[in-house]
Design brief:
With 112 residues, the protein is α+β, with helices and mostly antiparallel strands. Helix 2 packs antiparallel against helix 4. It starts with a strand and ends with a helix. The protein is 61% helix and 12% strand.
Length: 112
């Protein structure tokens, strides 16, 4: 069940956090985090420049950038109730994870 809001001709869809899409999206995130957990120590230890892994790092950076937009449009729980209001999901994301995500994503783009 998805709620929408018309914003000057643009339809915003709030994604259910338990949807199949979010499950698959989160599994991809898990794979990327595991890759980072292994590759970053290897790159630092053997002084491998990130430019040699740009074929892998570039798609990952695009993924994390898109994840910020998807996170801003994903419902959340408040006091045990699922909130799927487009305005509230955006406001919740901006107040919680946005700054952290923005710093990490910007750092990743600078490092490529």
């Amino acid at each position: 069940q998805q709620k929408t809001l018309e914003l000057k001709g643009v339809k915003r869809i709030v994604v259910d956090p338990h949807s199949e899409f979010r499950l698959v999206w989160s599994l991809i995130a898990l794979l990327f985090v595991v890759f980072d957990a292994i590759s970053i120590p290897v790159m630092v230890s053997w002084e491998i420049p990130s430019s040699e892994l740009v074929g892998i790092l570039l798609p990952m950076n695009f993924y994390w950038t898109m994840d910020m937009f998807f996170s801003a449009q994903t419902g959340f729980y408040e006091h045990g109730l699922l909130v799927q209001s487009p305005q509230r999901t955006l406001r919740h994301y901006l107040k919680t994870w946005f700054i952290f995500d923005l710093l990490v994503v910007c750092f990743d783009w600078v490092m490529i």
